[in-house]
Amino acid sequence: MVSRHELSRHELLSTCLLLAIFMMKAGNAKSETWGGLPEQLLNRASSMHTKAGAADFDHQPWVEQVGKHPKVYLFHGFLTDEERRHIIKLAAPEMKRSTVVGEGGKGVVDNIRTSYGMFIRRLADPVIERVERRIALYTHVPVSHQEDIQVLRYEKTQTYGAHYDSSYDKGGPGPKYRLATMLMYLSDVEEGGETAFPVKSEWADPDIPRRLEAAGVRFSECAQGHVAAKPKAGDAVLFYSYHPNGTQDVASMHTGCPVIKGIKWAAPVWIHIDEFNPPLARPTGLEAAPRDPGMCEDRHERCGEWAKAGECTRNPGFMTGQGTTAPGACRRSCAVCTPCSAG
């Protein structure tokens, strides 16, 4: 069995600090828009310990860095069985041939990508919102910087050729470019279907391939010799498209290897340097569930504690929703609204 190599608190916070510097340089973002989470949650995310029977908000996968170039982190048990089944159930009736970004940003069909897919709007329902907030927690980037969750289905021989998730110009990445990708696996794949990095990739530990082989993990020919991840239901892979200095990481080129046996369900979420607000006219599958703008409530049992500790001022994005498109978690405790009287 592969040994558990958890990130130390120092390593994780060092990575987050580099990302904060990058976002301020590349996206001209204010420092308070990055990592707008209460200190208690930052500490909890940094420890990365599995917690049996944890509440939804506290669901904690364990993570190991598997790629040095590019930076690739494997989250074991990122999604619960309920969450991944829910995502598939929402997506299955809406699946259409996947597209790639063409001229003018329009989606076009291309044989480089032969899967079927659809999008689920941000905050579509409580389960989707929970997953999106977990992504924000572990990437330290607000939900408002995420694109809608894309759900993909790959059947036998279907693939996604080598590509970058974000382009790069001489002037830098710009405000609308994708900083990172969180790729969630919704199903196991018997053979093939790996996510592989075929250009100048390097394992974080040269011993990882041996440990994987000893654990019975077998890569297809497409993934052999490269940093790669084999789909496992509930796991997720986080990788970065840029270096902290704002230059593109050429090693972030990746491919979805052909499925040889089985069916692959996956759900990538692209994370932007600045807030991402797609045009309302863009077809994205399910519409977001309407939310009462006058709702005044706390969405976590520790809101009162965080408010007393001053988090309403230090972390307004998370606590009250200030400066983001997401509802705040603790609006009532932060006294930014007035609850309706009974009756």
From TrEMBL:
It is found in: Endoplasmic reticulum membrane. Keywords: Dioxygenase, Iron, Membrane, Metal-binding, Oxidoreductase, Signal, Transmembrane, Transmembrane helix. GO terms for cellular component: endoplasmic reticulum membrane. It catalyses: L-prolyl-[collagen] + 2-oxoglutarate + O2 = trans-4-hydroxy-L-prolyl-[collagen] + succinate + CO2. SMART domains: P4Hc (SM00702), ShKT (SM00254). GO terms for molecular function: iron ion binding; L-ascorbic acid binding; procollagen-proline 4-dioxygenase activity. Residues 145-273 form the Fe2OG dioxygenase domain. Residues 1-31 form the signal peptide. Its cofactor is L-ascorbate. It is a single-pass type II membrane protein. PANTHER family: PROLYL 4-HYDROXYLASE 6-RELATED, PROLYL 4-HYDROXYLASE ALPHA SUBUNIT. This is Fe2OG dioxygenase domain-containing protein. It comes from Chlamydomonas leiostraca.
